[in-house]
Amino acid sequence: MKKLIPFLLASLFACWSCNLDDTYTQTNVREMVNVEGAKLLNDYGYELTVVEDQVGAANWQIDGARYLALYDILNRNLDIRLKEVIRSYKQDATLLGDGIELPQGPVELFAQGISGPYYNVGFNFYRAKNSNYAHPIHFYYKIVNDHLYIYIAHADNGENPVQMSEDDLVTESRMFSIPTDNFTNVYRISLVLYSIFTNADGTKRIEQETLEVN
To answer: Is 175 a member of any domain?
Structure first.
């Protein structure tokens, strides 16, 4: 399994308004942004103006779209060089009730963290090259005392990457932003998912894994 890489969601914004000169720059800022007209708005309310677009031909300028963006800040006016975007879809989580059996399809995280009113999570999953089956992704949650558990449930339609050759598999990536408005009086958050682990003899297995978010 790939190593979990939490992205740090730009606490530096809190000090941008203080003592920044005209030559202020910052490279490789990675954070969540929303498209609002001709600008990008981050979760702290700062407007970013794209003056250099390195994303290329991809049509990312969709009003209201949400992205995990990588960019350089070029000056104190927050003109930016946009380098990469990954679309994040807003997704509500469903309360996990008794008797619900979660699918056990594994995922591999590439990003996760809290930004503004969202818990953001990005991950990869496997599918067979010759398969046209959809791979539904569901999010569930439960709250135990002050502890919030968020579950990723990936329905893999029997395409088990532990049993299949890597030559027969392709990887897809997904990014979601889960509103946290309903999660009141929560002081701890854990992410629960199924992951692929490698045994000492080189064989692989799938196990449930719980990761602390904060």
So the answer is: yes
